[in-house]
Amino acid sequence: MEFLQGIVSKVKQKLGKNGKVAKHETASEQMAVILEFVHNFAYPLGFELTNEWQFSLRTAFNVFVKWFTWFLIVYTIYLDFPSLDDVVVLGGTCVHIIHTAKFVVVVLNHKKFMSLLNFILQVYEVNVTGNREWILAKSGKTISYHFNCVIVGSVAGAGLYSFWPCYDFLVNGNLTKVSPLIIPFVNDEQLKGYLIATAINIGHVVFHILGTFAMTCVFIVYVDVYDDLVSLIEDDFKLFDAMSEKGVNDSERQLAFRNMIKELMDLARYNAYMNELFTDIATVECVCCYIGTVACLFGYFAVNFTNGIGAIAYFATELLMVCYIGQLVDNTTQRITEVINNTKWYIYDVKYQKVILLVLNIVGRIQPILIMKLHPLNFATGLMIIKNIYSLTMFMLNFLE
Question: If you average pLDDT over residues 149-158, what whole number do you get?
């Protein structure tokens, strides 16, 4: 990513004493800084936003942590089985499945992730002047806002997960477990073992949340740029409408129209790539949030696992974030058709109107991110998941009675 590295070096030269970037930075410089920010979070976990990324010791350590967690899950179930406590372990297993799925998807599809990032950088490199540069410049504030939302959600999830055990230990002196996982050779019923087990569990959660944060930030960049691409197409259609009203030379209109069609085809491919990369992740995330929340509610009511409330809060923030991002994609996908329908197609020449009909057919096939290729990822689907969580939880509690 020579372009990204070059832009970042220019931005660093413009940094003042207070570390803030000058106000006159371009949209491409903003995007370079944003990607550098995400890269800094992903780098310690073994991910790199570069085309030359290779499996490294950092990646190997990430793999080791995940395999060690799977070992603890199997070891705990082996010692407790059969027991109602295994249902609580299922909740923790769902959290780890989410992190593992994201890791596997990124490692196996790194070239596809980078192809989208390279396309984004090319778009920002080409559109450096006029209204198009201004449209792209606005995305910097939008992405920063969404990053802040993810930071708040991630900190809230990790904090709520760890709050009650730490509070109960520091204030009441109770050795309340953060996680039901059993660590070999560590007796968590004694103070020393409890501190070791708590440190390992909280450190493990923070480590994986950093990976989730980096992955979510990449997702946000894709989604917000997706909306910017639609805005660029909308701007081009407005320009073409003006050209048609003024009766501009047909050769110039043909060139402008051909560029618009090319942008629409790029948008359709962008949507297909984004869906391919994130459909599986969104499906795993929603299914695991559903199963994990039910397991933690069951653990809280049936076996008095107090920290189940913290785990439920984590699942709630995770589900809210993924549904929010899915809603943004859903809104943008619907907006594409609105942009084309709002054009002054009725003043176009007949040859252009015929192409518009073909474009509407192609755009109609653009889909939002689908869960299990059935339900669109949005707030409505999130509400459906919450209703099903309540129904299944009530069924399990009634069954125990």
Answer: 77
